[in-house]
Amino acid sequence: MAVTQEQLPHQQRLSAAARLRAALAEKSKTIICPGIYDGITARLALNEGFEYLYMTGAGTAATRLGLPDLGMTTMNDMVANAGSIASLDRSVPLIADADTGYGGPLMVARTVQAYMTAGVAAMHLEDQVVTKRCGHLANKELVDEDVYLSRIRAAVMAREELATAWPGMDIVIIARTDSLQSLGYDVAVSRLKKAISLGADVAFLEGMTSMEQCRSVCTDLAPAPVLLNMVAGGVTPDLSADEAASLGFRIIIFPAVCLGPVVNVVGQALKTFKTTRRNDVSEFQKQTGVKGFFNVCRLNEYLEFDRQAGGNAFNGGV
Ligand SMILES: C[C@](O)(C(=O)O)[C@H](CC(=O)O)C(=O)O
């Protein structure tokens, strides 16, 4: 019987980045990532058994800061969010948005090493200007190709530097280009090929608008693995993970899978509360009390940890 990672002594287990690399090496495997943006959405996804997570930058801007995806999150905002999400389950690889890298090559290098130290398994870096916008909005502005490639080179160098100092450290670098919108398919594919030749591991053609592009891109970038960004309501034809896998995509992110529901469901709850001015207590809440909610965040595991460590704060139960 095959030994699972969990059965191995911790020294022999793979890091999250190594798990992601192993999955990428297995050609038949599709890496499906629900977009999450905070502790509770990450917990809900982990509780559903998702094997990979994607930390959306748009979601991070909206949920941590209440801001639109217009390049207002700083490196520190993103690292803090990614680090707390990655810490919830170290065996589940977290792919995180790193926008433009937040500055020149030196800042890109700081970003890469901060993501690595935070335990992020993969990050994507793009070629928009620092005053960027969501890849599915109009009139995106790009940096020149040499600036973009210096971002990728800096990322690869920074990864190498930290991996040398701290063996076992790694991060999968995903090169994203937003150039399709203004420069066209051939230029965008050529930018990605150059990024891959510099040491990026995965290619991400942002904002594809036709099935023809979706059908060609994996072949045109082979053998590099390609990521597909399935933004709900975005410009790319709507594909399921299975349809995308059949076109050859290896990583498929669904950034808005928890964003639409928060607007709809929480928005509706607030509307109802404004009218009724009382709690809408569900059957589940009546039965479990507040513990039901805390159990989403593994209340009992934390109580048990405290007990095993000799803590006595919760001996009488909670
Ligand atoms: C992938 C993305 O960078 C994100 O922040 O999740 C966004 C998605 C979005 O705005 O919904 C993007 O630029 O595509």
Automatic annotation (TrEMBL):
The keyword Transferase applies. GO terms for molecular function: kinase activity; methylisocitrate lyase activity. It comes from the Eukaryota. It catalyses: (2S,3R)-3-hydroxybutane-1,2,3-tricarboxylate = pyruvate + succinate. Coiled coil: none annotated. InterPro entries: ICL/PEPM, Isocitrate_lyase_ph_CS, Pyrv/PenolPyrv_kinase-like_dom, Pyrv_kinase-like_dom_sf. Pfam families: PEP_mutase (PF13714). Keywords: Kinase, Pyruvate, Transferase. This is Pyruvate/Phosphoenolpyruvate kinase-like domain-containing protein.
